[in-house]
Amino acid sequence: MSSKLPMLIALAAIIAVPYIVDNAFAHGLGGDMAPPISFGGMEVTVSTELSPSDITVGEVNEANMKVRFFDTLTDTTFEKVTYRVEVWRSGDLLARNLFYDLDGILNIKIQPVLGCTENDLWRCTSYFGSQHVSAPGALFVENEGRPTVKGPIFDKGGLYNIRVDIEGATSPKTQLAQILSYDTFVSVAQEQDFMINAYAQEVPVIVKTYYDHVDNFSYDTKDDSISFDMPFDWDPEYVSLVQVVHEEIRVPKSFAPYSEGKQFKGFVNGVEVDNRVLLLDPYSYEDSNVVHFLVTGAELERINNELGPANQKSDIMKFELVPQSEVQKNSIEFYLVKQDSGAKSGTNVNISWDSRYGVNDEIPFEFTFFDEKGNLLKDVRYAYYVIDSKNKIVTSGGTDLQQADGIVASEGIDIQKIKLPKQDSYRIDVALLGLGINFEQKYAGIGSGLIEVGPSTGMSAPKTSAVSIPNWVRNNAGWWADGQIGDSDFASGIEYMIKEKIIKVPQTQSKGTGESVIPDWVRNNAGWWSEGLISDEDFANGLQFLIANGIISV
């Protein structure tokens, strides 16, 4: 018992200070927090939250939108705030109005209205409430009431931009010398129904999209794969702003290729995504499995770099889900306790892993969080330590300054790749820090479980090759081999791509030979490689020659 104490105390300390962070700002499905602005010695920001947090078009006739203006350093909410709130979708303004709130936490009732035929959608929006006498034009409702906005808001699925200007605070008569402006984003889901014909049966499939309408749904009987696409801007500047793209595929468990226990591979625009992008949820529906594509911004950038300029000019994201064989999983389950009382927090944690993985493999451990009724907890923020039998920390996650807000498991399921150095009994300490962007504490707690792994069976994630050259570079090589671009242009382009890690070749030191002319064999290699006649490694030999002779400097 005493050996658990240091790590549990550390996890408890993390739980105790969930707000004193500076990096908890990321788009959520039903909530978002904008990056803070330095103001008067404070770091002030705005958060927006929807209730219910997971809105699906057609399933709700009203929603609450909560807007809060506060100092992130002290978690202090400012009072008597005048907000200007705008709601946008796909570049269209849907609503814009001033609001005033005494305690600084503004709640607005949103009622979707269908069938707007105006070119300017905001013209279909109506506002209900009283005007505050000290904040002219600002809607204000006393006591437990809320101002109401009715219009073409949340009537379609997609990403909504909630823009908030702070025009006054502390007093309705106090106007800020500098208006503080924030952008937050929330997603509204839309379900689309499809039918596939396979193995002499009709199988209903639901795609739940949180980003945009999907098209071109298809099923391939050769590998039982499901694919579809949706509009998406791959421009690198836009991709750098995207936190996550979330798509959800729901298939009956009775359909053998997608039955419970199956694993999957996922592809975006033909590029295989990391296995952490795919989350399998067999818990939410008794008769269906749900596979989530949660494609992070970092993964989108990797795909963009691999596919190159042609993809960056594309306006389509293509998804493909391919079933794999069924695997046997080991698992442990334990409950979390509250740090102050030791009573059960109401949270159960299940940790599972593929039994084929072993020592020194990158084992994808799946963390799943349930409430006391067995329902998945959503938008979980958690941390963990892995400790060996000598009480030495092997690894941890969500515990350092870069992850001070914890690891986010938006669907209550998360995969962490953990390498265990030897056959041993390991303890995993887990802390649920809170739920949502405001770290709601109802289910917060800490707990531990024990795991053991055997020897490796060769299931480690594939090692990254020392050579990595995207296919689109072949065009450049072919043009140079044909004399359409000069030596200096080719060398400069290759040099830039190696520096930016678009091309990866084995580390090569310049010998300083003074060679200034590119030999014909290097040009020949480039031409043959562009035609697929020689391998990436053979082409890389030529690039290594250019580096060694100082023609390319990296």
Unreliable stretches: 17-28
- End-to-end separation: 54 Å
For the CA atoms, what is the radius of gyration? 27 Å
Beta-strand segment tally: 33
Structural class: mainly beta
What do the pLDDT scores average to? Answer: 84
Query: How is the main sheet built?
Result: 8 strands, mixed
Roughly how much helix do the residues carry, as a percent range?
10-25%
Note the quaternary state here.
Answer: single chain
Strand content: 35-45%
Tally of helical runs: 8
What characteristic shape results from the CA principal axes?
globular
Describe this entry's structure for a reader:
Mean pLDDT is 84; it is low at 17-28. It contains 8 helices and 33 strands. The longest helix is centred in the C-terminal third of the chain and has 13 residues, at 487-499. It has 554 residues and is mainly beta.
